[in-house]
Amino acid sequence: MEPPAAPPGGPRGRVARRVWAFVLLVLFAAYVATTFVPLAEDSTLAAELAEWPSSVMAGIAGVSLLVASRRWAATGADPESQADGADGPTALRYLGLAALAWCAGGLAHASTGLFSNTSVLSLTLGDLFSLAALPLFVVGFTRFAPWPGGLRTATRHITDSYVCAAAVFAIVWLLVFSPLYEELGAGAGLLGFALVYPVADIVVLCLLVPLVFMSPHSTRRAVLMVIGALIVIATSDMLGAITRLTGPPVAGGIEHPIRFLGLALLAALPWLVGHRTGADPRRITGRGLYRFAPELAAVAALSVATVVLTVAALRLSDVAPVLPLAAGTAVLVLLVRVLGMLEENATLSRMVRNREGHFNELARNSGDVILVLNRDASVHYVSQGTAEAFGYRLDDVLAAPVTALIHPEDLERTKPVLDLFTQRSSQGVHLRLRVAAADGTWRHTESTVSLYEQPGEPDRLLVTTRDISAQVALQNEVRHLTFHDGVTGLPNRAYLEERASDVLAHRAISEEPVDGVAVVFLDLDGFTAVNDSAGHVRGDHLLGQAARRLRGELDSSSTLTRWGGDEFAVLVEGTGNAQRVVDLAERLGRVIASDPFQVADRDILLTASLGVAFAEPGMDSGELLRNADVAMTRAKERGAGTVEVYAAHMHETVVSRLELQIHLREALAAGDFYLEYQPVVDLGSSQVTSVEALVRWDHDGRTVPPEEFIGAAEESGLIVPLGEWILREACQKVAVWRISDWDIGLSVNLSAKQVLSSRFVSTVAGVLAETGLPAEVLTLEVDEELLLDDGAEAVASLSELRGLGVQLAIDDYGMGYASLAHLRELSVDAIKIDPSFIDDLGRDDTVTLLTHTIIQLGRDLGVQVVAEGIERPEQLEQLRAMGCDHGQGFLVARPMSADGVEALVGGEVGVDL
Fold it and tell me: 3-state SS string over 45-60?
C-alpha cells in the first residue's frame, strides 16, 4: 500500500495520525519488553535479536520514503514548501536512501554477528554503510530546512556548529566515556573506533539542529520529526558504543528498541506529517532572532562545557586547582565576550530593522517602483506604487519573474546586472528598458539596479524604476519636428542630409559598393502660379496631395523627403541597377502628371522636372545632393516634365536609354510611327487569311526596328498609349479592306502593361466601335511569359476580351512558360509556334518532334496553329506534311506597307482594291 502524498486534513486526518502514533508506541513498548526476557548469562531476547528488527524497520522506512517521494513529486503536494525554498520530494528521496543505507549496515552487522563477534578494533563493512547514511541524511534534511544563503553566512554556521560539537563531545567524554576508558587501562587506545558513531552523530546534530529554527513554516513539522528521529538514532548509537566498550548489553540491549523507534519515526513521516499553509512573503527585514540559532547553540554548549570541565579538573588529584580555575575563568571571559558580540549584533539588527522600516515607508510614499529581486529575477518585495504606475496588482507582480515584463529586444541590456553578484560593486547599473503595463502598452522606464545585502539572507537586487514614457514621447515629438516637414509630414532637408551622410559613411566603413545609392530631385512645374492665384494655404494642400502620390510609388528601400518649397527629394538605397533608378524617376514624373490636383473648386494639371544623381566611391553626401540638384535644374531648362541624369559618372547606355525614352515620347506626339503588315497565309492554298500589324519608327529619316525601342517603351510605360495608337490604326485599315469585300483578319501584339492596364478592355471595345471592325476579326496576341508572371490578373483581363468576341492567340508558344491549364482556362483560338522551333526544323530531331507535337496538340484542341519564321522551302514542306495550316515568314511574305499588302492580295484573288 502506497503512502499518500500528504496526510488528509480535518478530523479524519487527525484520527489517522493518532492511530499511527499509537501503533508506533505499542510496537516500541513490545520491543522494549524483550530487554527483560533473559536467554542466557548476561543476555536477553533483545540482545539476541540484535539488529535484525531495526534493520527490517530501516528497510521499511526506506521503501516508505522513496514511494512517498515519487507520489509527492507526481501530485505536487507541497507547493507551499517549494515557495519557501524547500523541496519535499527530494528530501524524502535522500532520507529514504539514508534509511536503506542503515538497513544495509544493520543487515551486515547482524549477518557477521552470526559467525563471529564484532571487533571494536576496526570498522566493518556494516559500519561503512551506517556511516554513509549520515551524509545522505544531511542532504535530505537540508531539503526540508534549506541552508542559510550566502557563503559568509554558511561559513559562520559551520564554524559555530563545530564549536558546539566540540563542546558537546567534551561533555560526553568527561561524563560517559572517560570513566570507561580509565577502567580499560593501557589497552583503551585500541578501542578508539568505538567512538566513531557518537562523534559522527554529535557533529551532524550540531550542524542540523540550528537549521530547525531557520526552517520554513510549511515544513517545520516534518523538520521536527526528522531531527527527533536522528536524536533517537544517535542515542542508540551512544548506547551501542558503551556496549562495545563494556561488553555486556546496556539495560538488556535497550539500544536496539531505541534504534527501532527512530527508524519507525522515519517510516511514518509521510503518514504523520501534514502540510501547513505556506507563510506569506516575508518582509525584507529578515527572519527574526532565530537567525542567531548557531551562535546561541554554541554559547549554550560552551557554558555547560565550561562548568563540566572546571568541576572535572578540580576533582583530579594530580592537577593544581589554580590551573582549572584559570582555564574556566578564561572560558567564562570568552563567553562574556561572545555575549557582548551578540548584543552588538542585536543592536545592529535593530538598526537594520529601523532602516528597513524607513525604507518601507519611503517605498510606500514614493511615486517610483521599488523592487527587491532574487537572483532568478523573481520578486521578493514590491512597493505599492507599482499598482499606480503600471496598473498591476501586487499578486500579479509576485507571480512571475520581472524578465517576463521586459520587451524582448531590451533583454540584452540586462546582462550587466548579473555582474553585480560576482563583482560586488557598490556602483549600480543604470538601464533604460521598455516594460509591459497591465493595459498591454509598452512603457519606457529608467531603472537603477544595485546589490542588496542583508545579514543571514542571500544576496538580492534593489531596483528603483521610474516611468519616463511622457519624457520619451516629448523627445520623440521634438525629434520628429526637427527632422520632419509640418506641411506634408515627410522627413525634411535636415533628415535627408543626415541620412545620406550615414548611408555613405556606413558603406565606406564596411567597404560596400556605393553604386546602389542615388538621389532623385523633383520640382513641381508651375507650382508658383498656384501659390500666386490660390494662396499659400491651398498651395500647401496641393503639396500634401503630391506627397501622397509620390509616397505610393516608393518601397521601403527609398526615403521620400521634402527638400523645400515645391521640391521633393528621394534617397534610393540598395539597388545596384542604375536603370531602375531612372525608371523610378520617370514613374514619379508620370504620377504627378497623370491626374489633376484638386485645389479649391478647380482641377490643376502639373508636371514635374526631375534630376537623378548616383553616388561614387569617395563622394560625400553634400556632393551627391548637389549633383542631383544640378541635374534637376538642367531638366527644368530643357522643358517641363523632363528627366535629367547627372551624366558625369553615368554609363553611356543609361544616358542613351533615357534619351531614347524622351525621343519616343516626342515621336508619339509628332506622329513619327507607322505600321507595316506581315501576311499570314494558308499553307495549303497559299491564300492570305490575315495580317499582323507591326510598328515602325521613322527617326530622322532612319527606320528604327521594333526591337530597338519596344523595350524602352515598355519600361517607361509609353507602350500603353503607343499600343492604343497601333490598335486604332490597324483596325481602321483592316476595316477599310473588309468593306472592299476582302475577308481578312487582323493580329495585334499586346504587351504586359497593356493587358494589365485598368482601361484596356474599355479601350479595345471603344476602338472596335469607332472603326466598325467586327470583334471576331481581331486576334490579340500575348506572350507566354505574361501568363506566368501575372497569371490571375492577366487571365481575368483576357477573359473580358473574349466576352467582347475578340480572338486570342499565344505568341512564341513552346518557350516553356505556358501550360495546358492556361490553354483550357483562356480557351485560346490560336497558338503561334516560336520561330526558334521553325529555324531548327529538319536539323534537330528533338525540335522536329516537339514541333510536330505542338501541331498535333493544336489540331486535337481545335486551335489554329500558325508557324512563325518560315524562311526555307524545306521548312514549308515539313510543316505541310505535319498538318500545319497557317504560317508566316520571309519565305511566305515579308512585312510590307498597306499598299504592298493590297497589291499582293489583289494579285492573288483578283480583287480590285
Answer: HHHHHCCHHHHHHHHH
How does 343-363 read in b/e, with b if 16+ C-beta sit within 10 Å? Answer: eeeeeebeebeeebeebbeeb
Q: From the CB of residue 673, how many other CB atoms can be counted at a distance below 10 Å? A: 19
DSSP type of residue 289: G
pLDDT digits (tens, 9 = 90+) for 53-88: 777 787 887 888 888 888 877 776 555 545 456 777
For residue 540, give Cα distances in angstroms to 331, 563, 564, 602. Answer: 96, 14, 12, 15
**445 DSSP 8-state letter:** E
Question: CA-to-CA distance for 818 and 237, rounded, in angstroms?
Answer: 95
Torsion sign, CA atoms 636, 637, 643, 647:
negative
Give buried/exposed letters for 118-133 (b at 16+ CB in 10 A, else e): eebeeeeebbebbebb
Four-residue CA torsion sign, 474, 476, 477, 482? positive
According to DSSP, the residues that pair with 865 across neighbouring strands are 831
Looking at residue 258, what is its pLDDT?
79
- Is the Cβ–Cβ distance between 811 and 693 less than 8 Å? no
The whole-angstrom separation of Cα 279 and Cα 270 is 21
pTM: 0.39
- Strands 429-436, 442-452: parallel, antiparallel or unpaired by DSSP? antiparallel
> Cell 587501562 appears where?
185
**Contact in structure between 275 and 53 (CB atoms under 8 Å):** no
- CA distance linking residue 569 with residue 522, whole number of Å: 6
* Residue 38 confidence class, pLDDT cut points 50, 70, 90: low
> Which residues are CB-contacts of 626 (< 8 A; sequence separation ≥ 6)?
none
* Among 246, 243, 121, CA closest to 190: 121
Q: Let me know: does 461 contact 483? Beta carbons within 8 Å.
A: no
Q: What's the pLDDT score for residue 778?
A: 92
DSSP one-letter code for 896: B
DSSP result, 394-406: HHHHHHS-GGGGB
C-alpha cell at 303: 557554558
Question: What are the CA-CA distances from residue 52 to residues 43, 236, 246, 626 (Å)?
Answer: 16, 15, 22, 103
241-281 per-position pLDDT tens digit: 777 777 667 666 677 777 888 888 888 887 777 544 444 44
Cα–Cα distances in Å, from 279 out to 83, 276, 372? Answer: 9, 9, 18
Look up cell 492570305; give the residue. 688
| Alpha carbon distance 641, 592 (integer Å) | 9
First to last CA, the chain: 115
Q: Which three cell numbers stand for residue 300?
A: 549554550
Please, are residues 157 and 294 in contact by the beta-carbon 8 Å criterion? yes
Contact status, residue 140 vs residue 270, Cβ threshold 8 Å: no
**Integer Cα distance of 751 and 783 in angstroms:** 8
Which residues, at least 6 apart from 17, have a Cβ–Cβ distance to it below 8 Å? 7, 271, 272, 274
29 neighbors 296 (Cβ within 8 angstroms) = no
Burial of 243 (0-12, 13-18, 19+ CB in 10 A): buried
Grid cell 549633383 is found at 627
- Beta bridge partners, 680, equal 690
Q: How many CB atoms lie within 10 A of CB 612?
A: 29
417: left (phi over 0), alpha (psi -120 to 50) or beta: alpha
